[in-house]
Amino acid sequence: xxxxxxxxxxxxxxxxxxxxxxxxxxxxxxxxxxxxxxxxxxxxxxxxxxxxxxxxxxxxxxxxxxxxxxxxxxxxxxxxxxxxxxxxxxxxxxxxxxxxxxxxxxxxxxxxxxxxxxxxxxxxxxxxxxxxxxxxxxxxxxxxxxxxxxxxxxxxxxxxxxxxxxxxxxxxxxxxxxxxxxxxxxxxxxxxxxxxxxxxxxxxxxxxxxxxxxxxxxxxxxxxxxxxxxxxxxxxxxxxxxxxxxxxxxxxxxxxxxxxxxxxxxxxxxxxxxxxxxxxxxxxxxxxxxxxxxxxxxxxxxxxxxxxxxxxxxxxxxxxxxxxxxxxxxxxxxxxxxxxxxxxxxxxxxxxxxxxxxxxxxxxxxxxxxxxxxxxxxxxxxxxxxxxxxxxxxxxxxxxxxxxxxxxxxxxxxxxxxxxxxxxxxxxxxxxxxxxxxxxxxxxxxxxxxxxxxxxxxxxxxxxxxxxxxxxxxxxxxxxxxxxxxxxxxxxxxxxxxxxxxxxx
Length: 505
Description:
Helix content: 40-55%
Number of helices: 20
Mean pLDDT: 88
Strand content: 15-25%
Radius of gyration: 25 Å
Largest sheet: 6 strands, mixed
Oligomer: single chain
Structural class: alpha/beta
Strand order of the largest sheet: 1-2-10-7-8-9
Distance between the termini: 62 Å
Number of domains: 4
């Protein structure tokens, strides 16, 4: 099956719109991991993503009748821009259905390429369903983002370029995975010409549809997907990509949000370019693989798949980078509430740098501080730090892996509220668009008192809120029914240790 894609890839005419992207030597990363790490720079395409290749290859092969009717696609970002530019170059009318949560930078980019934008729904599934309605109603030709042979062949030209650019021995190629179009096209070509080269997919831990499929031996549908790396937030690997991936992909590595943020910084350090979260997946995978396998002196290539990053997301990325590199430990420490305690605690750190320090008076006996402490890369010294503090007599809770602490608590540390009783805490996700926060607040009604609220806009399609409400035990079922009617995804966090230490009673 994969072999029949080779001719399609060789025949793909993508260079009417795409450029032959360079391979950049990541010198800093290479020195750090004692391997030659190379980056295939698909972020340098005219739409800052590889998606242009597959979209153009598909559209140019349509019949004259199909071109005359116009094309349509559903996408939250990179595929939309690829379809818009490809259609513009070929003189074809294009309609792109995008979720209402799509960042303005991407909407404006699609419009800038001459396409008509229709905003529909809060997520891709709703936008996709509406696109299919328009296909049926207006006879438009649908351009799939990944589950199509011609799209896969277009993406496969990335591997064709890579192998003629790099003729030296190659240990492994790392490829980000969403719906699977890129890794399928590249894997088919690589395994045909260089079967000894490992093809390794990289996915976020919370969007691992290919890893789940390989484990099950068949395509599976994830219950839900993470929202940070929106470019690969796909619940099921495509049918056509799966036919290739099940036999041509050697393994899939998953990475955390913090590791993705650290990889974005790594790409910036070596290239002075900013990859989007999905675009930095390959680098995060290379780092994890090199550490796991303890390999040295080999050539590793990662695909930087896109750079459509909202500027206001950089604050969040920067915040999480040190933890992603495992250079920072986040701790909750209980110290005596008396003069001189801070000074004694600083001495107990033995000249380690403090990255963050939050405190507010709570009671006369104990003070609880939220502190970030710099440690060695790779998490070295974290256990030693906790042990030293424990041995000195401090009660320490390691919050480095606690998502609520990193998302909310570090920005909210302000002490307990003794007057607040029956407080229950929930973390919500809701679509980020104008008026969404107001709609969320208005939906809560007035029956239950809101005792705590924290919201931050990270420039993503979805935002998170941490909320406390005073709910009597016998009212809990009714309160949860109200939350269900609102329809936002939520999780109760009343027993979260970070909340209970710094904010709860």
